[in-house]
Fold this protein.
Amino acid sequence: MIDLQAAPFNLDDEAIAWVEQTLVGLSTADKISQLFVLLSRTPPEQTLAELVRFKPGGITRIYSADVDAEIALARSYIEASAIPPLISADLEGSRMSLPFGTIVPNPLGLASVNDVEATEAISTVMAEEARAMGLNWSFTPVIDINKAFRSAIVGTRSYGSDIRTIHDHAMAQIGAFQRAGVAATVKHWPGEGYDDRDQHLVTTVNPLSLEEWDETYGRLYAAAIGAGVMAVMTAHIAFPGFVRELDPDAGAEAFRPATLSPVLNIDLLRDGLGFNGLIVSDATPMAGFGDWGPREQTVPEAVMAGCDVILFSDDPDADVGFLHAALADGRLTAERLDAAVTRILGLKAALKLQHRQLPEPSATKALLARPASRQLADQVTARVPTLVKDVQNLLPLDPKKHKRILIYSGGIILPFVPHPVPFSLPERLKAEGFEVTLFQQGMTADASQFDLVLYLFGEETTLTRSRIFLDWTKLTGSIFGAMHRLWYEVPTLMISFGYPYYLYDAPRVPTYINAYGSAEPIQAAVLEALVGRAEFSGSNPIDPFCGSDQGKY
């Protein structure tokens, strides 16, 4: 039996009655549809009919920039759904902010500020704006530990590498989100960050012993559960250290992803840590999930392994058929299906979705990116830029000394954008009186023609990138340019607006700055610090020297 009166649901008798009556009224087909949260990316006017037909438990909405159309879609979707839907997003800040909301720092940027009250305030703004849009569930906070510096998938999404910092900021976000009516989710169970590969491409591995895990991820998940987090996202991550404690001869099963592992989801998360809330899978089209078999096998296995929600599907109708087949042949039991749907309905009741709160256009638009929220976000963002080193005493920049700037940059790399987005920083520098030249393929970099060389990189956490690294050949256009270092001929500055570990590939660059995010407010904040109107007050939430003293000099 699922105790809906207990945390994190905390339902009263009326809400429990709604869950029970709703469950009884569902057909088997409706119950199966409730298991799915689908990715919604089509234009608003093309979206509603398919959602009404399929009747998923919820969606994850990738928003267009048309706020009126998005509000109308949310209203129509909620009104047309027989059971109120979960509407979710990855509220991670920076480029993952709502396109029409307040742009806030990402987790690594907030960790560089390391002010828990600031994180709570920023999280409150995020949640209030999301809830006004009809969003009621976020797949955050990320409580992964940023240990493998080559990891392209943890990167800027975590609060760094210090357990106490991660704990304090994640708990602040959980509290702020859930007070505002947005269910929080901690991820990625059982813990990412020690493997430098990407679950989108392969099942990754948490390599810790059970004792080591207990002192790190175990502490973080236990704290989140104690704080009442409503959901845990189980991921395509293996934890052989725990599996082998139970079965030393587990063999390949030791590397089964948590998404498909009853040992990790039921024995460890539910029974071991006492988690009573909702378990949502990570996105099931990922290769880390698909590596383990065809979907007719893995989709039912995920539910039997403890996943209450199947996240995303390239062919939802086919996946529904696989679950019907699994019920028919006994692989999936009616009891397990009812348990999953009970938790889904319990989450909806805990969020009071049964009362059909519709986003109101004028009130919503008045709340989005309001001046007080932007001012708060800008004040926190101003504290993010981190001066990692300046061994040449270059800063602050001055047009009288550094008039002519040569910029090398591959632009800003974004997961769903096919081509790099240009930085605004070069134009901002021009407005300060600098002369800016952007390096183009085929150019000869004559150091005598410039007073400063500036490298700009904009790669926040990216999807399906095996590695983020400084590709000198691509940057300079030739193998000969790749081998040439200009910083002994002209003052040189490197700025990362994302991935914070470029000193691994450029340890001798004399001045290096981490800004963690590439959104416009952080570029503006970096400029202010570059020209000396603001301080570099950020601290290092990770080791930017990648475990080596080489980059410190």
About this structure: The chain has a mean pLDDT of 96.
